[in-house]
Amino acid sequence: MRAAIYSEPGPSSVLRVVERPVPEPGAGEVRVRVVRAGVNPTDWKFRQGAMGELAFAEIAPGQDASGVVDARGEGATGVAVGDRVWTYLTQHGRPYGSASEYVVVPVAQAVPLPEGASFDLGASLGVPAITAHRLLTSGPVSRLAPGALAGRTILVQGGAGAVGNAAIQLAVWAGATVIATISSDEKAALARAAGAAHTVDYTTGDAAGQIRAIAPDGVDLIVEVAPAVNAELDREVAALGGTIAVYANNGGDEMTLSVRATFSKNLRYQFVLLYTVDPDLLAAATEDITAAIADGALEVGEEHGVPLHRFPLEQTAAAHDAVEGGAIGKVLIEVAPE
Fold first, then answer.
1. What is the phi/psi pair of residue 266, to 5°?
2. What distance in Å separates the CA atoms of residue 319 and residue 310, rounded to the nearest whole number?
3. CATH number at residue 143
4. CB neighbours (10 Å) of residue 1?
5. Could you give the number of structural domains in the chain?
6. Number of other residues whose CB lies within 10 A of the CB of residue 325
7. Residue 257: exposed, middle, or buried by beta-carbon count in 10 A (0-12, 13-18, 19+)?
8. For the CA atoms of the chain, what is the radius of gyration?
9. What is the pLDDT of residues 129-160, one digit of tens each?
């Protein structure tokens, strides 16, 4: 099989496409013929060595994939050979991820792709959608479904990003009113296309004042991408008993909180890293995401706020560069024809 691999940390130039044996699934595993692979910021960060030493002699990056099951190991039930699936945490704990023609994953990490859902959508789920689900269920609501967030107002900081977009779509499906912060008219249009009822440009004027004008009693939950930068704003606009759910450290690795001002509002902070989320929570997320897809509530494409950028497997390095460079939307690798 062809795979884009690297054997030392460094810039995207360390990636090269090679031929490797097709892996065989073990007990409880399935092999998936990859059609599309999604690229996430963690892919280039791992490649650069920012997340620690390389765990394997060579790595084919990529946590998210979509494709077709083509072999099952002993005891692997729930999907059949020929089923269309999406995978998550594909490279986590193993050397070969989604930037390869075949991947082997535990059967629980190969999720059936609902009828009518594209491989592009399947490869865009994984890290963004599961992270978004965990963020939205960090407060009093533990599962998402139509009406689960009815009456709640949610602030999505950075609404044009991949996780932000997934959070908007899932929150709207669950009945919430969403406010998204953005930094340009282009990003505002994408956040609205995803379903945000309101957008606030945090680069102009008083963002906190604009948010409080929309939600005078405060927002119930904040999806936060830059906690160090936004700590004061988050505290100011959060409702009593609100939740700030953090999934990234954009803008700074350390944050300072005013203890009295924070506990006086009975605020809850939840930090989310997909790689250490409990398996039961991952399973709950895949069930809810599948339901949202079946309802047509989770989509990709510019008309849904997620412009797609496609690269062939041979240009995996360019795909990584696009994500590192801040490409708006979703970067995909076309591994094989549909």
1. 55, 45
2. 8
3. 3.40.50.720
4. 17
5. 2
6. 9
7. middle
8. 20
9. 999 999 999 989 999 999 999 999 999 999 99
Reported confidence tier of residue 205, pLDDT bands at 50, 70, 90: confident
Residue type, 22: V
Phi-psi region at 98: left, alpha or beta (left = phi > 0; alpha = psi -120 to 50): alpha
- Burial class (CB within 10 angstroms; exposed 0-12, middle 13-18, buried 19+) of 50: exposed
Q: CATH code at 38?
A: 3.90.180.10
Same domain, 157 and 240: yes
Cα–chain center distance at 105: 19
Q: Please state the length of the chain.
A: 338
Structural domain range at position 248: 129-274
DSSP calls for 17-63: EEE-PPP---TTEEEEEEEEEEE-HHHHHHHHTTTSS-SSSSBB--S
pLDDT in tens, 58-110: 999 999 999 999 999 999 999 999 999 999 999 999 999 999 999 999 999 99
Q: How far is CA 119 from CA 8, 156, 331, in A?
A: 30, 26, 13
Residue ranges in the chain assigned as alpha helix (H): 41-48, 119-123, 126-136, 162-173, 185-194, 207-214, 227-237, 259-263, 279-294, 316-324
As a dihedral over the C-alpha atoms of residue 233, residue 162, residue 144, residue 114, rounded to 10 degrees, the angle is: 170
**Residue 221, token pair as written in the block:** 């939950």
